[in-house]
Design brief:
By secondary structure, the chain is an alpha/beta fold. The protein is built from five helices and five strands; from the N terminus they run αβαβαβαβαβ. It is globular and about 45 Å long.
Length: 162
């Protein structure tokens, strides 16, 4: 391995780690400001009605979801819609961490019989009254733009357990 390859690899990992941290901060901030739409079906409904309010689409999976053909078809359709409407997209591995960030229970059904929300698709939106503006959003958007410049149209990030 050459020095250029080694330095380039470290820089790529550092960018991915900082983008992952920024995405975590963005998701938490957006949830606090009620600027999140969670769930594949709910996300599709919102994008059909008001695509201009969506600033980021997060598609999350783990290894056990890779064989879910229906989910992959939904992802393909959501990605196509986002590309057509200029919405940044990022694929994320680490559903458990995403659930922690959103305060989702770690169990399949809680004490009240409620099932956890579908975290496979999360939209970060701007409300008509208040624009979500943060360094985290800018950082994630820049990462997506840079990835598109490198012909990676849907960048992938990993959220790590803490």
């Amino acid at each position: 391995m050459t020095l250029e390859e080694l330095v380039g690899t470290n820089m790529t990992h550092n960018k991915m780690d900082s983008a992952s941290d920024a995405l975590e901060a963005l998701v938490v901030a957006a949830q606090r400001q009620d600027c999140l739409t969670v769930g594949v079906y709910e996300s599709a409904k919102l994008m059909n009605v008001d695509p201009d309010s969506v600033v980021l689409c997060v598609l999350a999976t783990d290894e056990e979801d890779e064989g879910d053909i229906a989910l992959q078809i939904h992802f393909t359709l959501l990605q196509a819609f986002c590309c057509d409407n200029g919405i940044n997209i990022v694929r994320v591995a680490g559903m458990r961490r995403l659930g922690q960030l959103l305060g989702e229970p770690a169990v399949a059904v809680d004490d009240n019989g409620n099932e956890p929300r579908d975290l496979h698709c999360i939209l970060v939106t701007n409300s008509p009254c208040q624009t979500l503006s943060s360094d985290a959003l800018h950082h994630v958007s820049s990462y997506c733009e840079e990835s598109r410049g490198n012909n990676q149209w849907v960048p992938c990030l990993a959220l790590h357990q803490r």
